[in-house]
Amino acid sequence: MEKGAIKVWAVLFWLAVWQLVSTMLGSEILLVSPAGVLLRLWQLLPTADFWRAVFVSSFRISLGFLLAAVASILLGCGACCCKRIKELIAPAMLAIKSVPVASFIILALVWFSSKTLSTLISFLMVLPVLYSSVVSGIINCDKQLLEMAKVFKMPLFRRVRYIYIPQALPFFKSGCTAALGLCWKAGIAAEVIGMPTGSVGERLQQAKVYLDTPDLFAWTLVIVAVSLLFERIVMTLLKYAERALARA
Amino acid sequence: MRDIVLSGICKSFGETEVLSGLSAIFPAGKTGCVTAPSGIGKTTLLRILMGLEVADSGSILGLENVAVSAVFQEDRLCENMTASDNIKLVSPKLNDDEISAAMQSAGLIDCEKRIVSELSGGMRRRVAILRAVLFEADLYLLDEPFKGLDADTKSDVISFIKRKLFGKTVILVTHDPEEAKQMNCQYEIKL
Lengths: 248, 191
Description:
heterodimer; A: mainly alpha; MetI-like fold; 10 helices; 83% helix; 0% strand; elongated; B: alpha/beta; Rossmann fold; 5-stranded parallel β-sheet; 6 helices; 32% helix; 26% strand
């Protein structure tokens, strides 16, 4: 989404609509009011369980993202170096992209512990997105610069450091933007189905079972906030990496 | 380095035959020029000598273990790097003083630390020329290197190239007979 696309007035408008509909329905179970959500969040904030759940889920989902980032770089480089590797990976990536996330979650529950579920699912959802961005970044590297490097017999390390990385990084960043939101959505969905103890997904599932709508909305707000924070951290780190590369 | 001997070089792109049975000798240690109207295969010939294209048939002798340097038709510089870093990219052993002196000779005053994307077309061209000339090579291939340079700048750059590449094997591709004359080309190959 373009920077500055979210305007305060528009947010206030939709909050007002939400409040209005909630008041008209007059039922906390059907639709809790924004004030009710904030009140529930305020009650959750001082509890240790809340922070433990946020930390556990954030750690597992972030780990899945980071593992996928590393794997996508390695596989992407391998695929660009060797056509056979690319051909070998293609069906697997297509399968990961096409199979519904729920199928993966159920299958993973059969094979693995529910504790590793959100890491595995966020890994699987992020991998094809970042893999495609790494491959596109390498493929779209300036051919003329690569020819120049070949003529001057530049060593591989210098080609990678000064030609490939600066040109592939914008593609990787763009892939990260798309993958970050995806990994949180998929990771939390996996937790809701797998219900690992002490996770955000488990709390969401409990909210559903007990028809605790304020809890459901409060936890959803927390997930949105944490995923936005994680996105900001990753994008800032990538920005610093880009600057450090330009300076070195 | 030995003379470069081309025998019966043919090269086609699809149905279009660009080089048909070209035979020529490029004597070692001399500056020569290749002239021809546009689209006759000058750049293709240089690309074959650079190892970027493979001839469909024919043979080339004298290019074994030869270090090649080149000025391409395009500048081919890393846009986000400084002029000095672009030169160091291919010649990491050069020190700042050597680069600075060379840049001054080519009329690039205080440009070492400027990002290439901020330089004018003529300045970028000179950075590309310096990158090639300062690179320690046996064979220098210059594909229309003075494109976009005004007469005075061209004259300065040619003097610098002649000084730096004296006694080296240089092949210049140009449309302009005056450039060949200024470069003191010792032979001419017409395609």
